[in-house]
Amino acid sequence: MKRVLITGAAGFLGSHLSDRFIKEGYYVIGMDNLVTGDLKNIEHLRSLPQFEFIHHDVSNHIDVSGELDYILHFASPASPIDYLKIPIQTLKVGSLGTHNCLGLAKAKGARILVASTSEVYGDPLVHPQTEDYWGHVNPIGPRGVYDEAKRFQEAITMAYHRYHGIETRIVRIFNTYGPRMRLNDGRVLPAFIGQALRGEDLTVFGDGSQTRSFCYVDDLIEGIYRLLMSDYAEPVNIGNPGEITIKQFGEEIIKLTGTKQQLILKPLPQDDPKQRRPDITRAQQILGWEPQISREEGLKRTYEYFKTLPEEELYKAANYRFGTPYEQGSHTISK
Q1: pTM for this entry
Q2: Has 146 been annotated as catalytic?
């Protein structure tokens, strides 16, 4: 049985990756410090003999016993509400954490895939974004802690590939959605659906003309799996090129939820990208991949998931103390 280490395994994408590799017959070692991850996302896996969970921060030294065939480094805050509240931890997991994962890959002779992001393109001046575009990033702006952590991650990954001959893969992930997203993570889709379920007006930042391209999680996981199994070391965009304005997206959510809320405009945050759409030519040509699930179908599945959450989940807000999240509900605060 081949063995794979997935960092950030209790997070949104990490938990879906764990599911996929269990399904493919792998022994999965999930690692997470639970700062933004949630054990509920992998509760269904923890009783399986082919799954093991290690509570650990990859920014510290990593020691995994036995052989490893693959490492997937997905540990990182991934939404503005997270990386703006814990900026140092965000920088550390992208730099020290990636360094530790690459060192482990070198020691084990494992192939490693690192999760980069469309944020490496910043507020892009090229549209749609191709992998050979170098980006337009403010390194000292509030979002720079995430953007530059991922850009450094890519640089050190390629350095290990070129200098040490490590088998590396880099996926640049565009906006992704689906079950197990946190309602309180600050990203537009869970924010809109959460507001709709609470009967609140939907908050649109800016005038709503900025664009995003949303990929359903199952499509993304398929693309990541194909990239890992390929022989291609350069970065690859994985995302859905179907572009929509935030205003249009809000209107879709109102229609989906059958609610009567209005769209409320608020100032656009600093360095927020005005447009975002992946050029997936490389993924199509090299991986034979393109998204299969329509936004209409993906949103329906995601909304059905959010409707199953207990009511108290609708009112939680994430807070952080010394790198540890505390979920504050309407009545209690618990670690």
Answers
A1: 0.92
A2: yes
